[in-house]
Amino acid sequence: MRRFGKILAFVLTAALFAGLFAGCGAEENRPEDDRITITIWTIATEGDAFHKPFTEAIAEYNRSQDKYKVVMETFENDQYKAKLPIQVKANQLPDIFYTWAGGFSEAFVASGKVLELDSFYEKYRDELPESKLAARYDGKLYGIPYVTPISVVFYNKQAFAAAGIEATPTTYDEWIDCCEKLKAAGIIPIGNAAKSDNSWVLAMLYDAVILKTVGPERLAKVLTDKEGSYNSAAFIEGTEAFRRFIDLGYMDPRAGMINNDQALEKLYRGESAMYVTGSWMAGLFYDPKNCENPEDFDFFPVPVINEANASATDFMGGSADTLMVNRYSEHPEEAAEIAFLLARSVSRRSYLSGAGTPAWNVDYDTSAVLPLPKKIAETCEGATSFTLWFDTLMVADDKDEYLKNLTDLYNGTIDARQFVRNMAEKLSQKR
User: Is the pLDDT of residue 53 over 50?
Assistant: First the structure.
């Protein structure tokens, strides 16, 4: 669910980049570039945390090639989500395109427009674990991952100290107690953004709360296999727990009027204490434009709400960010090979820059990896499950209805029980 707004990437030192590019020739010295162009679409815009990993990986590839060159075109997240299904239907895809595994890309694969990649994967099997291959449909591989983001609770340690909080919460009751202390200290306990085009931010919190109430297996069955009902005790419990954060005044009262970037600024300044979002945010604390003291920030797993169903090591997230190949590209096999090479390179560069936890095996020097990204990577290693975010896991029509109902739940237009009834009704409909 990299739905990721405009995020500033942390810039590595010139010395580190020099080391990464050692031995590469200078592409700009080519007198005439008559190479075959392979086009890739991504959402790695200039303000995105993955912009540098992608541009550097592509530049490195282009410097080493005589026959092919890669050109990247970027799009804003919401624009791209609307554009991609249209381009699939029109058979006007680029050679390689970024997308999300799960229900979002299910229709693309079913249309026959995406190249199956199992034979290409054999070459990289020892470098890319099977467990990271989220873009499998009917047992076949159609997408190449590069990072494994998860949802966590980032928090401002200074805000916690000001409220007299000495330990991070691990249970729902402890989380509520934490929020009470922060509220009493005049600090917004949980930052969020619920502006119309930022409903994904609100969903980050809701998804995580439901996972820690319902549990990963049951959640996936209800959302994808449509076994069981959303209108059941555990889903009601989790939805009421989410709504309680609003009713008790623990969420930013201005969340409906601000976007993700504005909400993050409140966390940096200590106006809010906690923020549930993806682990791609970890590197941003080291950008001096965001905050002066990155050591003032840390994270903890979303607390468990129902211990009978979920555990601390169950995480929303996984290797949903993926590169797919246009089956009808003029050069499909070459595009597939390039996609694997780029994914491997972006995985490494994302980890080194703090943008993401690598999906590919780490076989390189990690001494320069920032503390928070390294800690998150270690946390991922101990995960017992990864569940893709709702708006990635569900098919497009279900996802749209979910986000609409979640906005209504946040605004108080519907209550928790009406929300689960609406979800149950939508999920019971045949595709």
Answer: yes
- Note the maximum CA span of the chain: 68
Helix locations, 90-155, DSSP H:
103-110, 118-121
CATH number of 151-316+388-428: 3.40.190.10
Q: Which DSSP string corresponds to 236-292?
A: HHHHHHHHHHHHTT-B-TTGGG--HHHHHHHHHHTSEEEEEEEGGGGGGGG-TTT-S
CATH class of 14-148+318-363: alpha beta
CA 397 to chain centre: 20
Average confidence (pLDDT) over 26-54? 82
Our CA dihedral for 15, 16, 17, 18, rounded to 10 degrees, sits at 50
For residues 169 and 249, what is the distance between their CA atoms, to the nearest angstrom?
18
Q: Where are the domains of the chain?
A: 14-148+318-363, 151-316+388-428
Is residue 381 packed enough to be buried (19+ CB in 10 Å), middle (13-18) or exposed (0-12)? exposed
Whether the model clears a pTM of 0.70, i.e. scores above it, the answer is yes
